[in-house]
Structures are given as C-alpha cells and as structure tokens.
Amino acid sequence: MGFYNRMAQSALRLIAEKGASLTYRRLVKGFDPLTGATVTASTDYAITGVVQEATPGPLDNAMVRRGDRIVLVAAEALPVVPEAGSVLLLEDTEWSIVHVGAIKPGDTAIAWRLQVRR
Questions:
Q1: For 27, which of 37, 84, 107, 117 is 20 to 30 Å away at the CA?
Q2: Dihedral sign, CA of 42, 48, 54, 59?
Q3: Which domain of life is it from (predicted)?
Q4: What would the pLDDT profile of 99-115 be if each residue is shown by its tens digit?
Q5: Domains of the chain: total
Q6: Is the pLDDT score of 3 beyond 80?
Q7: 30 contacts 41 by C-beta, under 8 angstroms
Q8: How far from chain centre, in Å, is Cα 88?
Q9: Which one-letter DSSP state was computed for residue 55?
Q10: Among 24, 118, 28, 107, CA closest to 73
C-alpha cells in the first residue's frame, strides 16, 4: 500500500469517527422519448462527512456566501466522484452542491471538499 493510499485510509477512518451521517444524492438528467420530457433520476449514497461553516469570500475559484457550509468527505467512502449540481442531505434538509474540490496531494484523491448551499 502506497503512502497516498494510507493517507486515504486515515482520512476515511477519522471522518467516520468524527463525522455526521449524510446522504449524497447524485442527480442525472435524461430525456424520455415516450413523453418528450426531460426527467431526472437520482441515486443515493449513505456517507459520513465533517461539516463546518464556510467563511464568505473566494474558495477554489467559487464564491462562498453567508450560510454556506463546507463538508469534507473521505474519497474512499464515496464510490463516485461528487458533482456540482447534486444534492447533499444534511440535517434533514437538501443542500445544493455548488462546488467540488479534491484534496489530492498526489495522484490519489484522499477527500472531497464540498461547498453546499440551501
């Protein structure tokens, strides 16, 4: 096991110990040829993340607004790459993911930094 894989495993363990239970909802838009309408399908993933208040100002080329949250999720805990436009269920409330940043000290992502907004 390489150094970055050990870091990823440590991130998974620490976030699992200290984090909150969340749901990542991946939204995929498609076209229904029978109705001619655009449809949205969703897939839910149970995850654990560390939630913190975001400080207003720039963050990874995305503007942070008052009330935004930053959620750290271990990359090992999520079998898909999170995407902006998806949803995070936090405190029984849907939060829109407005920006995704990778904590990636090498070739391996060890955690995702999700900027979420109500």
A1: 107
A2: negative
A3: Bacteria
A4: 999 998 878 888 999 99
A5: 1
A6: no
A7: yes
A8: 7
A9: P
A10: 24
Q: What's the pTM value of the predicted model, to 2 decimals?
A: 0.82
Q: Convert the pLDDT of each residue in 45-95 to its tens digit.
A: 999 999 999 887 666 656 888 899 999 998 888 999 999 999 999 888 999
Contact between 28 and 20 under an 8 Å Cβ cutoff? The reply is no
Name the amino acid, one letter, at 53.
Answer: E
Give me 73's structure tokens.
């999720």
How far apart CA 23 and CA 100 sit, in angstroms, is 16
Q: What is the CATH number of the domain that holds 104?
A: 2.40.10.270
Task: Tell me how far apart the alpha carbons of residues 113 and 118 are, in angstroms, rounded to a whole number.
Answer: 17
- pLDDT higher for 6 or 70? 70
